[in-house]
Amino acid sequence: MYQSYPFWYTPDMKHAHEHDADVDFEPEDEMGSVGAVKAKMEKLKKELEEVRVKRDEYLDGWQRAKADMANIRREAAEASVRASARGKESLVEDILPALDSFDMAAMSESWGAIDESWRSGMEQVRNQLLVSLAQHGIERFGKAGEKLDHALHEVVQEQDDVAGEPGTIVRILRYGYKNGDRVIRPAHVIAKP
Question: pTM of the entire structure?
Answer without folding.
Answer: 0.63
